[in-house]
Specification:
By secondary structure, the chain is of the alpha/beta class. Helices cover 37% and strands 10% of the residues. The protein has 2 domains: 224 residues, Amidase signature (AS) domain (Amidase signature (AS) enzymes); 104 residues, no CATH class. Helix 2 packs antiparallel against helix 3 and helix 10 packs across helix 11. The model has no long low-confidence stretch (mean pLDDT 92).
Length: 359
């Protein structure tokens, strides 16, 4: 097997450098990724566009930040003309009529080659990737274990050596949990840093979009390409430049600053082994950077319930007239959540969401 028979094992930045030096071509990388996906038993992809991806690879502009790099799209993100199922049987036949701003920026400004959709949990609602529509996605470190969720397919594809980078989204850990489960970089950026336009859903205001990556510099480059205000997302923030260029330049400014270590957020169940690891790594990081750890009570009353309710109300608005007839084809967690919240919050909350959208 030659080096071009298997996908690139480094990060996306180094892959672009290989394209520019002509040590590898976008077409070779695409073909290697598609072949690896075909051989894989991870169930990381729910849809592939090999013909379209090949045409894009032929025209790849490798001078762009991610020029020619195969990109996986989390199936909760929209790509015009592709399936837009939200990982639910309810929308199994739906096609997207728009492309999300993040995907548009990554492909048009960044030059990435979107090759297919990565599996996710239904509506992004739970932290495992197992759905009625697609079945279970597996962790590349141990088959039969979950890669986490909701961006589990993206994590499995990147950590499993199929592609170097994939989109993700995070409301309650949907980037961070899969990154932790599979050994990737998973940054949940500041809310609104990357727009959720053009169809901004305002029901759950904890959701950010981002990336599953193999390196910090890949993540920084992604934010360089994708961040910045979009008028169709009123909560999106103004652009901030030089994410990648400033890596490693703020070390001195951190010295003496304080940081809170909160492994359980004041109430979550954390195993003793994980707690010990978190404390050890936090102390190592703070020693290296000169940060000072302080203890703060981070408990918030019923934070889990409040977050879950806001998410389930939004899911109910998406189901709309499909509910309750669709109850039997939802994953158990989604069915339970919608049933539990609709009686108390359904009509009133839905009216508020619709009135907010109309502003």
């Amino acid at each position: 097997m030659t080096t071009t028979d298997s996908p690139w094992l480094g990060d996306a930045v180094s892959l672009v450098e290989a394209f520019r030096s002509k040590d590898r071509s976008p077409i070779e990388e695409l073909q290697a990724s598609l072949a690896a996906i075909e051989r894989s038993d991870l169930n990381a992809f729910s849809f592939l566009d090999p013909e379209g991806a090949l045409e894009r690879a032929k025209l790849a502009d490798v001078s762009k930040p991610f020029g020619g790099v195969p990109l996986g799209i989390k199936e909760l993100d929209a790509v015009n003309g592709w399936p837009y199922t939200e990982a639910s049987v309810v929308f199994a036949d739906r096609k997207a009529t728009h492309t999300s701003v993040m995907v548009q920026r990554a492909t048009e400004l960044g030059g990435a080659n979107h090759i297919g959709l990565c599996t996710a949990s239904e509506f992004g609602g739970v932290n495992v990737t197992r759905t009625v529509l697609n079945g279970a996605t597996h962790n590349p470190w141990m088959h039969g274990r979950t890669p986490g969720g909701s961006s589990g397919g993206s994590a499995a594809a990147v950590a499993g050596g199929l592609i170097t980078i994939a989109t993700g989204g995070d409301g309650g850990g949907s980037i961070r949990i899969p990154a932790g489960f599979t050994g990737l970089v998973g940054l949940k950026g500041t809310f609104g840093r990357i727009p959720r336009a053009p169809h901004t859903e305002l029901g759950n205001l904890t959701v950010n979009t981002g990336v599953m990556a193999r390196s910090i510099r890949d993540t920084a480059r992604w934010f360089d390409v994708c961040n910045g205000h979009d008028s169709r997302d009123p909560l999106s923030l103004q652009r901030v430049d030089n994410w990648e260029a400033q890596l490693g330049t703020h070390t001195d400014s951190l010295r003496g600053k304080t940081v809170v270590l909160a492994p359980d957020w004041g109430g979550a169940v954390v195993s003793s082994a994980m707690w010990t690891q978190l404390e050890e790594y936090a102390k190592h990081l703070c020693t290296a950077t000169g940060l000072r750890i302080i203890t703060v009570n981070t408990s918030l009353p019923r934070i889990g319930a409040a977050w879950s309710i806001s998410g389930m109300v939004e899911i109910h608005t998406q189901l709309a007239d499909h509910w309750p007839a669709c109850a039997d084809v939802l994953t158990p967690e989604m069915r339970f959540g919608v049933e539990a919240t609709f009686g108390k919050y359904g009509t009133e909350a839905r009216a508020k969401i619709e009135s907010r959208r109309a502003l």
